[in-house]
Structure formats: C-alpha cells, structure tokens
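Kindly draft a polypeptide, keeping tokens residue-aligned:

***
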Amino acid sequence: MTASKEIKCTDVEKPKSKFPARYFVTFMLFMGMANAYVMRTNMSVAIVAMTNQTYVKQGHEDIFDDECPNTNYTDLPKEADGEFKWTSSQQGYVLSSFFYGYVITQIPFGILAKKYGAMKFLGWGMLLNSVFAFLVPLGAREGGIIGLSVIRFIQGLGEGPIVPCTHAMLAKWIPPNERSRMGAAVYAGAQFGTIVSMPLSGLLAEYGFDGGWPSIFYVFGIIGTVWSIAFLIFCYEDPNSHPTIDEKERKYINHSLWGTSDIKIPPVPWKSIMKSLPFYAILLAHMGHNYGYETLMTELPTYMNQVLRFSLKANGILSALPYLAMWLFSMFISFIADWMISSSRFTHTTTRKIINSIGQYGPGIALIAASYTGCDRVLTLAILTIGVGLNGGIYSGFKINHLDITPRFAGILMAITNCSANLAGLLAPIAAGNIIEGKPTIAQWQIVFFIAAFIYIGCGTFYNIFASGERQPWDNPENDDIVQSPSANGHQNSVPITNIVTESRH
C-alpha cells in the first residue's frame, strides 16, 4: 500500500469554496508556528543588547579591529554596552535553556495528543509560552543567569506541543494531494516568525521602552497571547468536530484521508517503528537539520556583531535575510514537489530524497564556503542567505515524510524525531559558545561552521540511502477493526473511535 496510491484514494468531488475550513486551520497553524519561532529567536537578538560587549572582549587585544577593520563601514554606530556581564559560554547556556524545556515535552504531548486531541494542548501551551515572555526582563534583572534560564525553560515547556500537535492536526485536516503545499505553508511560519522577529527585535532593542531589549518580550508576548486565545476559540480538532464546516468539504477530507473517516486508529506499533529504517532516516535527517539550523538561528546575530561588526539594528535586519530566502524557497519548492508526484514522473520516495538533498546539502556547502570569506561582509551574507534559503527544501523532504510513511501515527513520530532533533539542536549554542570562548575569531567561527556543515551533509546522505515515501506495512488500515454508529437517517455508518471522542469534546 503506497503513498502514491493514497493520493488517488478519494472518489469524492473536491468542494469549490473560496476559503475552506481547512485553509483557515492551515493559516492559524502557520501563525502559531510563526509565534513559536518568534519566541525562540527573539532572545538571540536581545542577548546582544543585554550583554556588555566590552566585558566579553576584555583581554582579547581588540581582535575585532585587527581582523575586520571598520573601513568603509564608518556609518555603523558603536553600540552601547548592555547591562549584563555575561561571557560567551554563559550566553550559550541562556540560549539553550529554552530548548531543555522544549525537548522534554515533545514525546509526552505527542502521546497525549493522540489520546485526547492536539488542539487544546497546542493552544494552552502557546498561551503559557506567551504569558511567561512578560517575565523575561524581571527574571534577568532579579535572578541573573539562573532566573532568566528558568523563565526561558518554562517558555520552552509551553512551546513543546507546537510541532507534534501541528503534525497531528495536519494529519486530520489536509488531504494527501495537498500535503506538500499545506505542510510547507504551515512550517514556513518558522521562517516568517524569524523574519519578523529579528529585525523588529533589533529595532525594539535600540528604540524600545524600559531600556530597549525588555520591550521585545512585552510586544511579542502580547501578540502570542492574542493568537493563543483566537486559536482556542475559532479552531477545531478535526472536520467532524467543526460545527459550521461545509458538509462537502467534511466528506472530501474524510474520504481522502485513509484511517480517518472509517478506520479505528489502533495502538501505536512501537516495535515495528523501532525496527523501521525509513523512520531512522527521518530521525537522522531531522537531527542533522536541527543542529545546523540552530547554529545559524541562535549564533548568526552574535557572529554578525562580533566578527562582521554590523550595528544592532542592521544585525537584526540582515540576520533575517537568510530566513526570508528560506520562506520563499520553501513555498516555491513545495509546488515543485507536488508537481513531481502528481505528474507520475517521480515516486514519493524519489521526490522526498531529491528535495531533501537540496534542503540539506545546500546549507552544508554554504556553511563551508562562508567560513572562507573572511571579513567580506557582503559575500558572507550572500552565501549564508543562499544556503539557508535552500534549506527550505526540508519542508517538502523529511519534514513532511512522517505523513507519507504513517499518516495515522505522524504526530507521535514527529514528537520522537523532533525531541531527538532538539536534543541535538540545544547542543549547537553550547558548542559554539565554548568554541569561541575567549577567542571569538574568524578561525574559531570557522570551526563552528565546519561542524554544522558536516552534520548537515552526513545526515542528509543517510536519509538518501534509507528513506522511503511508501506507506509502511505496520500502518495498514486494512488490518483495523471498524466500529459502527447509527447515522441520522437510520443507516449504519463507519465511524472512527477517535472521531466519536472528538465530537463529544468540542
């Protein structure tokens, strides 16, 4: 039973609606992903403004001036020193504290979402994340490194449901023939959030209230709170629990999603999953991506400040350029991926491997190239922009591959791979902070970039060898039992147990 067959499984006519309910859910999930990444990335810009850079540079004999003189960049103003005397390694621990909380909630929320539904865990989790953003300035000023790290840890706990619960909702709402585009659209919210967060955080740090950098967390805390409340009010777990969805759209979604409309979702086949090479291919690709991506996401503003010596305002704006490229490219390549599959010229497996290769080899090669550009600010930024842009291929590669191999357990598989990937990702700022500790030179940053590049390329190669786009035998709905429930007209309809539970909940 293959994924390509799955796309053609529906004989229900696609409803003609200007803005279907599934598009609204996709849009809200996109905005949720954007808010989540705003909360993740705003600290990487804020910490540059929070930290006393003179203290960080003490004892290094002005290596910044010697390596990258300010010739032709005299229009860039000298930044005022921040209020906290934190070393590079201490900053690395602050940046990584968020991910400790984020990681430990992945698998629990993946399991709970399967049993109780994903929507409320996602909405309430993001509300917790947003509310604690207001406490970041207080935590830093009153509690120092420890106080700030605790607050960021709790924010990470709240953000834990975002990826597994988003994947679980996509599995219930998006038909297979719209999977690449809708999945890419939702996860491209990560880049959209980064694009908004970095330049706006830079501006708020320079011109904001309460000393500048605290306004970053107040502003984005308000935005996140508003989104969370709106999501909890206007979104629903699945088409069957939506009170106003068009009946044609409900039937179209349910009949196109195998295992959703008339199949009971069985217990998780843990043993089969643990023996599945396609699962491990996704796992390794995800881990490699996160290490490389977190290296860039958390360390790029610091690199631009310490080595390329951009101003804080320019730092935020220019740091966002690579993610703008990634956002645009991820949307473009998702249409290419769906065309490759629907044209029948490429299988799901071949498509995922080709697109994922672009998404992981591209940034790996770019990181190696960028490590040799020295003080050439324009060339370095151009290469990093192209490399991170190509990284957008992963959203139509391994990131959506869970839905190919197991539509019904995609949320749980995403929880496992995302948890493991973030364990790898949280090592990135710690490793970078310790490598550049006391000597933030181009040579040391080259080591940081080389490590990330080889991890990108190595994990991408493992994926190309063992990945699959086929629905796996351990997720065969023909082996499931059907549960019967009476319909309104007195006939017996096949209804999944999960939908009966969901309908009573919302």
Q: What stands out?
A: The chain is about 70% helix and 0% strand. The first helix runs from residue 3 to 7. The two ends are 33 Å apart (CA to CA). The beta strands are 484-486, 492-494.
